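Practice record 12: protein with adenosine-5'-triphosphate.
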Amino acid sequence: MIKVESLEFKYEDGTKALDNINIDLNKGKTIGVIGANGSGKSTLFLNMIGILKPNKGCVKYNGSKINYNKKYLREYRRKINIVFQDPEKQLFYSNVYDDVAFPLRNLNIPEDEIKVRVEAALKKVNAYEFKDKPVHFLSYGQKKRVAMAGVLVMDSQVILLDEPTSGLDPHMTKEIKNIIKEIAMEKNIVVSSHDMDLIYDVCDYIYVLRRGQILGEGLAEEVFLKENLLEMALLEKPWLVKIHKILGTPLFKTEEQLFDYGIQKHI
Ligand SMILES: Nc1ncnc2c1ncn2[C@@H]1O[C@H](COP(=O)(O)OP(=O)(O)OP(=O)(O)O)[C@@H](O)[C@H]1O
């Protein structure tokens, strides 16, 4: 599994985007990385996947430092994969099926196996119905789901989701939330988002970033009760935590749990 140890990363213009970052993906099944704009979330993901190389410290996979030669990275990215915030960065602009099949064809996998895997990935993200459409005709939300399918098809062990719901309407946000929960049954996921309700709902362990440093970490239920930590990181509480604080109800992790509690109270 992946560990980030004492990692520092500076961009070419001298911006120190990450400083002394320590992250252990063993701490949760779905890990949240939260922080205000510019706190370093995307830079961290790019370091974890080996697109950027740290100036100090390292990223470890199964106890060994990752290597940056092409051969190693090709293998590494079969285990750990990223869905970028902007789906345009991920799609190649053929039709949806070919786009999702592309990485498998690159690995010379037989077409009948590709068909099974591509169709399964598209079904998982509810994109099967537009599998024959050209990618450039899709809506933004549809592109986001196809980009997710393109990563799911690889069968990786860890998936990094950078802002998976940015730019999506509430219905699509809910759909992505359910997809994340389903994927999390089989894989380790790391999610970065400004949507604290999403993070609180899907993540079990959270890292809080501020200006490139880890300001705090812990279980979701603990981190979101730390008022000072959230204030310093310029973050909001999830609505379920607000209700707990204001009404004194138990702290629920999902809205379904709150509704069940409400129903029982009124019976
Ligand atoms: N290519 C680059 N060159 C120089 N500085 C950069 C570059 N990309 C990002 N930065 C800087 O690195 C810091 C971290 O940026 P990053 O994009 O990782 O933050 P983020 O938490 O993902 O932000 P957001 O929530 O807005 O997506 C910021 O100060 C940003 O200005």
